[in-house]
Design a protein that fits this description.
three-stranded mixed sheet; 3 strands; alpha+beta; single chain
Length: about 80
């Protein structure tokens, strides 16, 4: 199982400076929602944005983490 802090740190390592919110959706530390706000997403399609986040978690998906919902956003001015 993962902790919210571990997930946060993995995503932050891949996307420095991002604003990241990690939510345990069912309280079992196995099903997560991750909301990432980053200027790194500028010019990328939604799929490309999600791939960046997924790549940061590739080592734990299907093992220590069962399910994840990803939401990506650009910072608002």
């Amino acid at each position: 199982m993962m902790t919210a802090n571990e997930i946060h740190d993995l995503v932050l390592h891949a996307l420095p400076g991002a604003d990241i919110e990690v939510i345990d959706t069912v309280g079992d530390q196995n099903h997560w929602r991750v909301v990432v706000v980053s200027d790194r997403f500028a010019g990328l399609s939604l799929i490309e944005q999600h791939k960046l986040v997924m790549q940061s978690l590739a080592g734990v998906l299907g093992g220590r983490m069962h399910a994840i919902e990803i939401k990506t956003k650009l910072p608002t001015a």
